[in-house]
Amino acid sequence: MILIKKPWGREELLERNKKFMVKRLFMKKGHRCSLQYHNKKKETIFVLSGKLKVFFGKKKNDLKFMILKRNQSITLSPKTIHRMQGLSSCYYLEMSTPELKDVVRLSDDYSRA
After folding, report:
1. Residue 34: what pLDDT?
2. Which sequence spans correspond to the domains of the chain?
3. Architecture, CATH, for domain 2-107
4. What's the whole-number average pLDDT of the chain?
5. According to a count of CB atoms within 10 Å of the terminal CB, is the N or C end of the chain lower?
6. What's the rounded Cα separation, in Å, for the pair 111 and 24?
7. Average pLDDT of 35-60?
C-alpha cells in the first residue's frame, strides 16, 4: 500500500496493475479536492462511510451534484469535470482505469491548479 497525503485528507493506493487501480480515500469534513477531469481515466466512486458531495458535468460553470452516503456510488467517464467534497469526514473507494497521472486541474482550494 502506498499512502499519499493530500491537503484535504489522504489517498491509499491499494492496487494498481495494467487493467485497473483501487484507492481508498479519506476526505476531511468541509474540504474538497480539485475541480478536475481526466482525458482517459474512467472512475467509480463508492462511499464506505460519511457523506460525500460529488459535483460533475461537461462544463465547469454548469455542474450537477449528488450526495452519496454509505454503499452509494457514481461512475465518471473520461472528460467529465468533477470534484468531491466532504459533507462529513468520509472514506470512499475509487476504482478506475490505471492512469495514475491523468488529471487536469481546473481550480483548487490549495493552489495546486
Report:
1. 97
2. 2-107
3. Sandwich (2.60)
4. 97
5. N
6. 23
7. 98
- To which residue does cell 451534484 refer? 65
Assess whether pLDDT exceeds 90 at residue 63. yes
Q: Which three cell numbers stand for residue 51?
A: 457523506
Owner of C-alpha cell 491509499: 12
**DSSP letter for each residue of 51-88:** -EEEEEESSTTS-EEEEE-TT-EEEE-TT-EEEEEESS
CA dihedral 50, 5, 24, 2 (to 10 degrees): -160
C-alpha cell at 14: 491499494
Give the residue carrying C-alpha cell 465518471: 76
Cell numbers that stand for 65 in this block:
451534484
Amino acid at 31: H
CA–CA separation, 54 and 51 (whole Å): 10
